[in-house]
Amino acid sequence: MPHPQAHARSLNEYGRTASQKSLHFEGISPLLGCLATVAWILAFDNFAFWKTIASAQGGMSWEAGGAMAGLALVLLFMFSAVLRPLAGGRLGCLMLGAVLLASASISHYVDAWGLLFDKGLVRNMVETDAREVRELLSWPALIDLFWRGLFPAALLHFVGVRRSTASRAIRQTIMLTSVGLATAAAVAMIFYGTLASTFRNHRELRFQLVPSNFINATYGYLKADRTSTAPLIPVALDATRKVGANAKPLVLVFIVGETARAANFSLGGYARDTNVALADSNAVYFSGVVACGTDTATSLPCMFSDLGVAGFTNAKAQSRENALDVLQRTGVSVEWIDNNSGCKGVCSRVPNRQLPTIDDGIFCDGTACLDGVLVDALRASLAEVKGDSAIVLHQMGSHGPSYFKRYPAPGPFQPTCDTNRIQACDVSTLVNTYDNSIDYTSQTIAQAISVANAQAANMDVAVIYLSDHGESLGERNIYLHGLPTLLAPKEQTRVPMIVWMSEGVQRRLRTPKSCLTSISGQPLSHDNVFSTLLGFFSINTKAYQPSLDVWSVARSSSNCTDTERLTLK
Hints:
Elements: H1 4-23, H2 30-44, H3 47-56, H4 62-83, H5 89-113, H6 119-126, H7 130-136, H8 139-159, H9 166-201, H10 205-208, H11 212-226, E1 240-241, E2 250-257, E3 284-290, H12 296-304, H13 308-311, H14 314-318, H15 323-329, E4 333-338, E5 352-354, H16 372-383, E6 389-394, H17 427-454, E7 460-467, E8 472-473, E9 479-480, H18 490-493, E10 494-501, H19 503-508, H20 513-518, E11 524-525, H21 528-536, E12 539-540, H22 550-555, H23 562-566
């Protein structure tokens, strides 16, 4: 028989052990962690997604509610199945927290600005600079990130997630997948008509759904980026240039606009006079131009490529020469001057320079510069011209969301939206601010034309202005740009183009202004740029297409009479 004191000690030790076990909480199971994480994301990070589905139903009903509830269950199980293999222990907890933070940051801009998240947007994020990042940040964005991302991530970290064996993770993943597929089959049987028509008519839904939108977009970007390491493919190796006995250099100033949409150019019929500075410039406005893409990272390389929008991909463009390479190889001096976030690889093989943002008290504030700085740079470059040259000026233009920083205050249109939280501004004030940026862009174009015209005695010079893409200003609750081209509204794809020619250029190209004016309403696109640049410098190559050369099209226009051509010979 055990001694009474020994028996008492044994009971005390057992009690302490049991108490310690009851107090030591090892965290929730990985399965519950995945389900809780996905449930939070579906409930709080997908407002835009559920709003689109609800609005597509034309009003809530039991059928619509049932379809949305069933879809939510399918997404809950399928997303959890994707996360479950990695969701165990401390690393798994960190992974789930990272998904919560990423989902919160993405959903803020999807909800606030109507952005659709695809690989093009990932490319823009990777290629952005510190200034653009600062302009995207705001206190509401940070608060949103805190409660939708940091709070649940911290809570999950505090509670913890238990470790799991590989076999259990596999079993639970299979279980979640099976339940998800079974639920999907049941939902499809009951609500197929409702959901099928909704997703067929609203293709933007897959770009709104968090977290699959940024996971798929990131994968697509990385997959495309891996294919961009191919050797450089030369373009137009057969190119030759017809050089005459002209005493004057032939010079083209090509201004790449930023975020200017054709809808707000008074030269194209906009009711408000946003182009007053260009009224007496003797320039020709082209009203039917369509951009290659809806973001700079796509449109800029596409604009100078020979591939055309039908054959263009960023991966192909990165490993392929463009129009500037052909110009340089045929003896044209090329220079790229940038007041934006870079040339996206277009100028990597030609002389280029990024203008400094040092505070000068005139154009630059230490973080960014107004486009007037490009006019001064152009004046200096033209003074150094020795032979045929192409000078590209890359504007800051109307880059959002901080439109109020793109022009000298106060601007002609008042009141203005002086914040980067453009979705919080009244539509009229937002449009005022954007129109002020267009007004200033018009001023810088007019000044560039004036600088070029001042050199007309020394060179035959022309100026082309063409925007990279347009912009949404809250129409259909969509802001900024970057939507997939197939879904993008015309505000993001219709862009302005302006051409000015000195009399010397009109004679040398045998293209009077009247001939150019006669085709100014024809449909054009960024596809016209490659052959137009080559045509300007009389470059012969199989890659050149006369039907895409604006000068050639103007000369062959039925409205361009023989008399007009002969007067310039």
